[in-house]
Amino acid sequence: MTLVDFDKVVYPNWQALLTALNHRTQERFTLCLDEFPYLVKSSPELPALLQKLLDSHSLKYNLIICGSSQQLMQGLILDGSAPLYGRADQILKLSPIHIKYLQEVLRSDAISAVEEFAVWGGVPRYWELRLQDENLKESIAYNILNPLGTLYEEPIRLFMDDMRDVIQASTLLSVIGSGANRLSEIAARLEKPATHLSGPLEKLRQLDFIEREIPFGENPKNSKKSLYKVSDSFMDFYFHFVVPNRSLIELGRAEMVMSAIQSQFSRYVSVWWEKLCRQAVSGGLIGGDIYNLAGRWWGNVSREEAIELDVVAESMDGKKLLVGECKWTEGEDTDRLLHELIRKARKLPLLKEREIVPVLFLKRIPVHGCENILIMTPQQIIEMIG
Fold it and tell me: Residue 369: its pLDDT value, please?
């Protein structure tokens, strides 16, 4: 639809523009107001004006308002005292896009897609930047390990959108990203009482910057084994590799940082490989059975032994318990892995009378020793998630 010469008129305010637009249109269309919180900052009267237009039932176009600040958008739409409260026909909270589409965009093999996803996550804007470079290493160097790079200050910008205390948010993610995952560890690193951190951590969790992980099968309300993890892979990569090395990067030593990243990259990707495997198993069909939400289990099974299982999920009928080992390395001894996996699974306190279904989630199918073993590879995981 074209409104001839509509842009040649100077509109003194939002009311004049929106009213003129309503009068000029002869057919229904959709108007999208992007970064709505910033528009409201410069024009505080805008929500009340939109409320008046919507309540008049004379609006001839569909209206979409969107913004990157979750906190401000919720306040403008979901707060009971806000002018637009109750006016929305539909509220969409956009989640990160699945890895399947990143693989399609980059036209990569499954292994490369997992490695790319471990850096960029599910944000299309980051994918666009990645497409401008020949390979992953080059894109990391240009966009992330470069003080002038587009994404060098990205987390700070995100915090400014949603958090009042940017320094506190950045500090908490730095500590968590460096490996302090228990509340007691985080408090010790920051030299603060643990009780002072519950509120800020919960705020970061609500905004999807971090997630709280508990062992599979435990009650989230009373579990004392909570671990806090960075929930987005780009943010995890940033606080894992960039924040500890900012001084080197700003001294022009980004190549040293890149060398460190390359030496640790496989271990870093393995964490996200585990998450992708649990995501695929959750609600997935494996060996003829559909499984409920998958998780990780860790804990003591005796005074002398603690075990950890990367993937645990119960079948929908409750008769089977899938247990999985995830590896992002080459040349695995599958017989040894399977034997060890079953040994650990049999010690699970939550096993009860259920049948154990062991699965190995591997980077590649081994050349030898994979007979009669259920093995899942990156391409299968990506297809199950998609």
Answer: 60
86-134 pLDDT tens trace: 998 898 888 899 999 999 999 999 999 999 999 999 999 999 999 999 9
Residue 324 to residue 210: CA distance in whole angstroms: 24
pLDDT number for residue 48: 94
Torsion sign (Cα): 287, 291, 295, 301: negative
Q: 300 CB contacts (<8 Å, ≥6 apart)?
A: 306
The Cα 180–Cα 189 span in angstroms is 8
Beta carbons of 183 and 266 less than 8 angstroms apart: no
In the predicted model, residues of the chain with pLDDT beneath 70 are 1, 368-370
Place of tokens 């965009």: 105
Question: Which one-letter DSSP state was computed for residue 112?
Answer: H
| Buried/exposed code over 69-104 (b: 16+ C-beta within 10 A; e: otherwise) | bbbbbbebbeeeebbbeeeeeeeeeeebeebbebbe
- The strand pairing partners of 289, in sequence order, are 286
Contact yes or no for 116/230 (Cβ under 8 A): no
Position 366 scores a pLDDT of: 82
CA–CA distance, 338 with 374 (Å, rounded to integer): 9
Q: For CA atoms 176, 180, 184, 189, give the dihedral sign.
A: negative
Beta strands 285-286 and 289-290, pairing class: antiparallel
Residue 126 is predicted with a pLDDT of: 97
Residue 377, by phi and psi: left (phi above 0), alpha (psi -120 to 50) or beta? beta
State the Cα–Cα distance between residues 359 and 274, nearest whole angstrom. 12
The predicted pLDDT at position 1 comes to 65
Answering whether pTM is above 0.85, one says yes
Q: Which amino acid appears at position 243 of this protein?
A: V
| Contact between 72 and 82 (Cβ < 8 Å) | no
